[in-house]
Amino acid sequence: MRILVNHLTRMQPGYFCVAGVDVSTLRHIRPVLRRDRLTTDLLRPNGGPFDVGSVVYLGSTTNAGHPPELEDRRFDSARARWLFDDGPVDFWDTLHKVARESLAEIFGPELELWDESGTVDVGEGRSSLGCLKPEKQPWLYVDHRGTVRLVLDYLLPSVDLSVNDLRLYEMDGRTPRRDLVASVEKRLESGVEAILSVGLTRPWQKRGDTDKRHWLQVNNIHLEDNPLWQLSEER
Predict the structure, then answer these.
(1) Residues 6+ apart with CB under 8 A from 95
(2) Which pLDDT score, from 0 to 100, does residue 234 have?
(3) pLDDT(235) > 70
(4) Closest Cα to residue 117, out of 72, 147, 146?
């Protein structure tokens, strides 16, 4: 199986999550390991195969998905190989092909918007990954805790989502790269078209909540004026 990477997100220091579209079907695929998480030595700047816009050969895979994470495919990271980087025009074209105009089209009616975010109940839903063409320009900021966030204020209710785009953080996975955040913010304000890679977290229970839920987040921000900016260029 070969995927074109369009989701690359931070996790705890030393780990990351990646997903892409199957180059044959354009369906989203999330490579996962049997018992562990992906470590940052698998990123292109560290000698691994994964970066935004990279076409990666995963080898043989087996289905490991459960609702809503139906995209999960188990693979052997030792067999994964970087093949080539897609061209900027082709990458943007693919993003447009897979993008949808509403969150409901991506996640279905199981996604509930509330508490300035969105959630899907554990064991429900038809997908956990997608690409969104926002109806209006989003706006970006860094909150008091140093988390990059993105607001979609045209939605009812509006949402204020965590942005876990690995490119917008230092190698520690915690410190925002404020120069890059400011650049993206300025370009959004100027009207540059954006496509958002969006996803649902693994289930966790928020303080004060009664249950574990999958929470909506922004995985990556793709901009038309430079659709293929990579970790290898920005580190």
Answers:
(1) 6, 131, 195, 222, 227
(2) 52
(3) no
(4) 147
